[in-house]
Amino acid sequence: MPVTYLELENFKSYAGVQRIGPFFNFSCVIGPNGSGKSNLMDAMSFVLGVQSRDLRSSQMKDLIFRPPGSARDENLTAKASLVYVEPDKKKGDATSNTDEEEEGESPEKKAAKKSRLSQKMPMGKTIIFSRLITSKGTGEYQVNGKSVTFKQYEAKLASIGVLLKARNFLVFQGDVETMARKNPKQLVEMFENISGSSELKEEYEVALRAKEEAEQRTIFAFNKTKEHKSERRVLKEQKEEAERFHSLLQQRTALKTNHFLWLLFHIHSDVQLRETAVTELQESLSEHQVVVAEKEGLLKKAKKEASKARSQSSAKDKLRIKLEAEVDKLQPSVIESSEAIAALKKRVASDTKAVTRIEKEKTTHSDKLAVLEEEIEEYQSKEEELQNEYDQLKQSESGGIGSLTEEQEVQYEKIRDAAAVASAPPRRKLQSAVRGLESARAGAAKVAEEKKELQGRKEDAQRSCGELTARKETLEKSLEKTRAELSKSESTLQTLQKTASDYQAKRSVIESQLDTIQNTLRQAKDDRRKDKEEERILSAIAALKRHFPGVRGRLVDLCRPSQQRYNLAVTVAGGKDMDAIVVDTKRTAFDCIKYLRDQRIGTATFLPLDSLQIPSAESTERLRAMAEHDKRYRLAVDVIRVGDESNRRAVLYAVGNTVVCDELNVAREICFQPRGGRGGEERIKAVTLKGAVISKAGTMTGGVTRDDVNKAGGRWSDQKLEELRSKKEALEVEKETLDSEAGRGSGSHTARAEDLRNTIGNLRNKEQYSKSDLEYTKKKLKEQVTLLKSSSKTFAKLEKATTEAEEGVTEANERVERHRQEVRDVEEEHFAPFREETGISDLRAYDEAIGKAREDFVKNRTDIREHLAKVRLTAKKKYEDEKDFDSKLAKALKKKTDHESQLEEAEETEEKLQSEVSEIKAKLADAESTLKQAHEAEQEKEEVVREARSSLKEAEGDYNKVNKTMSAEESDLMVLRQKLHETLQKARVDEVELPMLDAEEAMDEDEEEPEDSQMSESATRSSSRRSSSQSASQETNASLSEHFSQREAPNVSKDRREAGKVDFSTIDEDLKVRRSASEEEKLRKKFESKISKLTQEIEGIAPNMKASDAFNTMTELVKTTVDDFNTAKEDGRRANETFNKVRKARSHKFNSAFKQIDAALKIIYTDMTKSSKHPLGGNAYLSLDDSDEPYRGGMKFNAMPPMKRFRDMEQLSGGEKTVAALSLLFAIHSYRPAPFFIMDEVDAALDNVNVLKVCNYIRQRSDDFQCIVISLKDMFYERSESLVGIARDVSSNSSRTLTLDLTKFDRKSSGGDKRSRGGENADEAESPKKPRTIAAGAE
Questions:
Q1: Strand bridging mode 551-554 / 581-583
Q2: In this predicted structure, what is the pLDDT of residue 1083?
Q3: How far apart, in whole angstroms, are the C-alpha atoms of residue 41 and residue 39?
Q4: What is the pLDDT of residues 115-124, one digit of tens each?
Q5: What is the CA radius of gyration of the chain?
Q6: What is d(CA 19, CA 729) in angstroms, rounded to the nearest whole number?
Q7: pTM for this entry
Q8: SS3 for 18?
Q9: How does pLDDT run across 506-549, given as a tens digit for each residue?
């Protein structure tokens, strides 16, 4: 037993200095809850290095003993010391197993022999481990009184086998359950601490990181080498491309110059023609403007008179609004006043009740005081009477016997205990005889009881047979009636369900139709909300048509499906192109885009008819022929009508060769099945009438968006809405009629069906219960008949057994009397001297007379005092005396008076408000009459204004027609000027050098300009000189904000002058000829195509002029990176060798511990689960997820109790988990055995059988290690070698301990050295009230 004593000083609940022990090889700590058992466990854990946070404390100061209610002493310290004795391996354990003195020993030998406890102390080196807590809350470690560091302290504990990290010496309360609940990762972490492989964890991680970093450096060096080699190849190719670059640049510059000369020549000519037409239209516009001014004067005069009438009407209306506002303003006050009056009335009523209640409490207060005083006096008088009665009883009962003083009573108790010890041998014989007598009496009583019970059973069986026969007949009749009612109810329910099913089907059809109509109407409503956006788009298209004659309109407006059923299919087939704007040429599309951007109208898609790519005529005709042969589909272009056939090209572009199919299966057949066995045939896009699409690539799209449905239904048809509304109303009427016929509430189909189901369910239950009851009754009747027959046979046998039992009782009674006399003789030897001293002749009679009375006296007096303390009558009386009902009543009366006065004021305020409201309402009626007359006068003046406005509108219409024509010309002119400006600007941006006229020719061109524009041109030239240094990008941004509608604008004059300076003589005469729009577009495309090809070729080259120098530099880099790669590869090899070495060492430590613990676990678990019924025991084992590197995976712990199949640990019972966890703990302890093992209530979840198994295992291993267990189960601690009892000292409110050496109660059996404690209970059987003598091993 390495741990001998534990010394505590002011630790938790242990006050002062206490020495606890000695602890034997198998010691149990016992005591009631709250006595301090867990604090003893915490003290052992604390001295063995466990941190305070694991001991139910947040800081060290919390571990110092502080009595509750006492002042906080900041100077208190605490200390815990553990006395450890290292076993002397040479001499062995010098404990003595002699429990009894040998007969015939001399007194000298007895005195020389050491005490029992000293004999059991181990011999060897003593080490005292101590841990202190200073008053400041800091800790200190000591070994044999010398202060050491924590590492030294931990090393010293490790030297005796105590490992703090693994905790191989400690099992806290709940650790067993925690062990059973550990997941695989937690088990691995625990095994790492136990095996010591965690010590290599940091080294392992460092080696792993070094290995990974070396691998990354190797990969980086390899990739870098590969990258440099690739760059060297690229640089070589770039050298060969640089030479072609300059030649292509020269070709593109010449082509761009010819292109810009051709554009400027024709734009400059068109601008001059448009300017002449605008001048003529301006003169006509001035004449119409004079007429409009006259009409505006007449309208202004009429508006003035109408405004005066509106002002008068408005003033009257303001007066009406003001009066209405006053009424509305007063109305909340009236309502608020009414609510306040109601609230005050409630408060007055509440106050009246409160006054009545207080007066009533005041009346009953004096009665309550009187009752409390009487009760206090009553209990005080009871205590005095009880004392007097006991004194009298003591005098009267002792009579001639005499009485004892208090000291004599104490002496009498000691003599009685000594007599009990001396009379133990004859008393044991007496007990044996008494047990024999009781056994004989019990046997006789048992036989008599069996006889009586048998007679009763026989009578009960006869009575039960008659009752069961009658019950059987009743149940058969009831079952037949229930089956008839059940059949009738089921037939009624089937009829009702059929009717309800028909009703539900009709109602579902109506609701489905209503939902469809409602969705259609809701979508139509959404379409109306989008009308404003549609109007904005149409307005923009109209503006484009005015400015650009080549604009045709939106494709959706230029065509429509031939039938309504094709609406959705055509919408899906055309897609976003249906909203596109159709124009004649690509040039017109560019002009429209420029116009939309400048006017900030928005964006749009344009379809130029001259450049659209459409399917070939051969493919279209081939598909049309196929469609005519197979009527299930048709070309989408054939189901679309176009107003102008010139727009058919746009329709062909939008839908292509898409076919419209009736169903999706037809579309699949066309798109996926080969046609005529011809290979390489063109794929087809198909659209179904419901909107499903199969593209040319073979992808399938199902369903349509809400926008598609709106486009399909609202663009080409806005009808049937009224029909849908009428149909909706008719369906709703039909639905209401159907509901009224079906009924509502309890008369509906559902309610009646539910009632019938409930009835059928009840009848079926009744049938089932009746059937079961009938079968049970028949079974019971058969059993009672059998029982009646067997009872008659057994009754005769019991008659004979009764006679034999009575004879045995008589013999046992005689033996008891004989042994009882022997006990009396032994006791007389002890009691005789005491009788002579006290003069009491019969001590037994005195004990019978006075002992019971004294116990009753002490008990009754304690009850009276406890009652007075519990009920607290004195405190209640004081509390009632302090109550003041007069002031409380005065406050309640004052509160009531205040509320009554507030109620009177509120009623007066309400009357005033009602009067004011009536006066204002009368004024409001007069104001409304005057307002009506003013409205009539206003309407007359408005009629005059409308006539004047109509006349002005006619004049403005004529003016607008001329203005519109002029605006169109100006807009066209503005577009041409803008195109001229953009062309010149683009030439500058593209850095195209245009050929210019000589200085003399340029001067002649300037003289031809009108005189009114000379100043503008001069300013333009000056501005041009100042801004010549600005970049081309700045000019581009400025052109977007300038206006091109004014002839005198600086930018217009500048562009005109610059265009006049261009020398157009260098271009071919063929380019000066005026062409049609389509021919011009083809020529422009030709220029752009050539320029684009050259640009693409130039941009594709991207030459690197420094490629040669870069190539030489890269060659040197390749050599350097190859050397770096070889170095990194060698570093990686060395890092991998180091890592493998650490990995093998760590795995070896872990696997060694795992194999040993797993083998021990199987043996221990088998031993702990063996029994007579299951001699082979159970099976438990551990398994690893990764045996190569087990610490990186998980570990599974499985246990199979005897005769049970394999299950997870979570599915085992609490006791089975505990046994398995304890087996694992003992197996772990066997790998790294500590000299002692401390456990806290590990048997909490075990039944008696498993407790006995665990206890036997610990006793078997007690020679290998010391075990200290906290337990509350007698079956566990009664088999230990010593008990440490912990109790609560009420006087100091601290824990005290007592130690009991149980080995002195052991006795050797006849078969050997096996210990037994059967005699301990036998000694106490006769006198259970006498406590066992306990030797105080502490204090």
A1: antiparallel
A2: 84
A3: 5
A4: 344 444 556 6
A5: 59
A6: 99
A7: 0.36
A8: strand
A9: 888 888 888 888 777 776 666 655 556 677 777 888 888 888 88
